[in-house]
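Self-study notes.
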Amino acid sequence: MKTRHNYIVGTSGYSFADWVGTFYPSGTRSADMLAQYVRRFEAVEINFSFYRVPTARTMSAIVDKTPPGFRMWIKGSRQTTHEGDRGVAPAFLEGIAPVIESAKLAGVLLQFPQRFHRTVANRRYLGEVLADMSAVPLAVEFRHCSWEHASVLEGLKDRAVTLVVPDVPDVPGLFRGPPAATTPTGYLRLHSRDAGKWHAPAGQDRYDYSYSHDELAQIVRQWEDADSPMDDVYVFFNNCHRGQAAQNAEAMRRILGQI
């Protein structure tokens, strides 16, 4: 398929026990998963950094296991996005320094929770966080629909911050903007389209979903028809159960003619 944009497709994370036998060969050890992953994809979202601030030693080891030209988006700490603690920013930036120095850093992803509404206080906090992290390229994912506002897009453009467009179910209150870009980089995160599981008590079931070929083809058409000028479009699948994210990512690459 001939496309207007350069699509870079991968998954949100790569180390999952239930990918063994469903995506990774049977018997694959966790220590060998990244080596298997980079044979199939050119980029990844590093997600463990959401739960614990990465160290330079850990990130250096990851850099060493990835080939030249490989790209990483690193998810920002939940202390910053979910707990209102800006103080972790210096340690976070210090921890990802090896990725920056390797030229493999695509940017840092800041994903805010659905309870983070577009209020005056939260707009101020967002601006402060973006300033704290301004030494690296940034992307922001909103979960609450109140951020679907023209001034938000303009504010991100002014700060050269990439808007993340999430693919989520049609659930009241969720941010569900159309394909758009606030920088030359587009960013799509595919989570699920199962509205019945989105607020399930077991949060892990929220992303238990597999996209059909028709759904993926429709998504590509929507991004191809988008008015926003884009050079690269990063596409990451977060529906990680049983290797679904990796399988869907490869299916999209086939639609795009990359496989």
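Second protein, same conventions, sequence then structure:
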Amino acid sequence: MKRLQAALWVEFLKVRRTKILPVSFFFFMFIGVMMGMLLFLSMHPELASHSSTISMKTSFLGGSDWNAFYELLIQIILTVGVIGFGFITSWSFGREFSDRAIKDLLALPVSRTTLVISKFLVLFVWSILLGITVLLTAMGTGLLIQIPGWSPAALYPFIGKYMVCVFLNALIITPVALVASIGRGYMLPISFVILILIITQLIFVGLPGLSFWFPWAIPSLYSRVAGEAIPAPGIISYLLFLITILAGLFGTLFWWRYADHK
């Protein structure tokens, strides 16, 4: 336990002293503010009338009240969560190879399993905090622009659903870590994250029946933002989701323990 605590502290210090930590939080804060501004434009369509692009984006909103804003935030975190959480995972694992620090890291008197677990724990907490950052920034912006239809009765179910979506996206970063380890850098895992996002969108648009079997689609199916026509996730869906997480976790642990790091 002490070695795990030491590894966690080292990993925390590495993250704290890099520029990507504040950049990631500023980016997610920006997303939250932009979501509020998008609804503000939906509330005042005359402001967006001079821009066909903005008018088109605001037309996709289901309304100009808090319920529409809640649904928009869940849609955004489902997308930004995959990208943002995947990118910080790519950075955390890929930087060890790009910076050529892997040999020094593996020479430490700490097991490789402990090193990997510490990385995952830090990344999980980091991802959750980023999701909360979007939520707080967006809610603050919504209150500032005075979105109509405020109701505490609708707020609490939304926060529960939102945080479950954040939690699910934070869990499924393990395959990204495995790809980053095998690829020994940033580019392959970032490409993998983008590919996953594209495949998820294509499945929902062209083959919605397959979304039941695709692990990265499970958070969206759980949230029901894709509509009632698409089937809700069942036991098999969550089982595949769990298998994907465990495969990424144990695959990464196995690779770090047995791969040739010369």
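Instructor comment on the second fold: Residues 176 and 241 are 14 Å apart (CA to CA).
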